Amino acid sequence: MRPGGRYVDGTLGAGGHAEAILKASFPGGRLLGIDADPKALEVARQRLAGYGPAVTLVNDNFRHLEDICRSHGFLPADGVLLDLGLSSLQLDDAERGFSFRLDSPLDMRFGPGQTTTAADIVNTYPEQDIAAILRDYGEERHSRLIARRIAAIRPISTTRELAGAIEHLPGMVPGRIHPATRTFQALRIAVNREMDSLQEVLVQAIRVLAVGGRLAVISYHSLEDRIVKQFMAQESRGCLCPPEVPVCACGHTSALRLVNRKPATPSETEVRDNPRSRSAKLRAAERI
Ligand SMILES: C[S@@+](CC[C@H](N)C(=O)[O-])C[C@H]1O[C@@H](n2cnc3c(N)ncnc32)[C@H](O)[C@@H]1O
Questions:
Q1: Ligand 1 touching residue 16 (CB < 6 A)
Q2: Rounded Cα–Cα distance for residues 117 and 226 (Å)
Q3: How far is residue 91 CA from its own chain's centroid?
Q4: N or C terminus: which one in the chain shows less Cβ crowding within 10 Å?
């Protein structure tokens, strides 16, 4: 972080990281904050009000990163931060449908502009497609069993109905994590097309960053982390041709240098203070 730098927080949330970036880049640092959720933007706007014109906030999906940076004079940027997934504000909001611990409509959209809700998926998708979502995005071992149950009892309109249906399936013993955890994660990822957005934003981050600028990504589950890890590994390599090819035919050149080979993880104290950080992994790379 350097004074006067231009930084992009692609997942603004309540603005905690954004504020830390503004402090670390003082004086003269500028921040572009993006969030798909207009409610998050309002919270962050109040928190960052004291920073005046140093802050630009945009309600959009980070999959449009390059266009957003261009429109707001943030090309090239000195840093791009992505703190993936959903915020505590969203999880604890009884109207949003992200938590199986609260009773609310099955929504799960990050923003009201999106059309597909979790209720649309559970009530209209074919059983096999629901099973595939639970398997691919939730790594749920019981994906077919749960999908069969959903298809048998739908329509389902609330989070408690869905969580209750899963809890009562045979073999679902409450363990370290609630039996509905993976289903809720999978539906949220599908509703918000999170994996597609992540793939798209990573490619654009390279185009947006100045040489020496850094990309930092915090992920919370293995699917996200795998995408980030593979992307950074590939972009920190030169030629990607198979070893048996004598002369490079791909023309690929490295665009990144890994800052940390192993992801940074929270300390025990941090996990104690903020239990939701327990699965966080931070990977960072520098544009070369
Ligand atoms: C973990 S929270 C970020 C918390 C933030 N770092 C803070 O300090 O408060 C993730 C935020 O990213 C937003 N988000 C997730 N995916 C997004 C996407 N594809 N485009 C824009 N915002 C997204 C969510 O709406 C949520 O507010």
A1: yes
A2: 26
A3: 14
A4: C
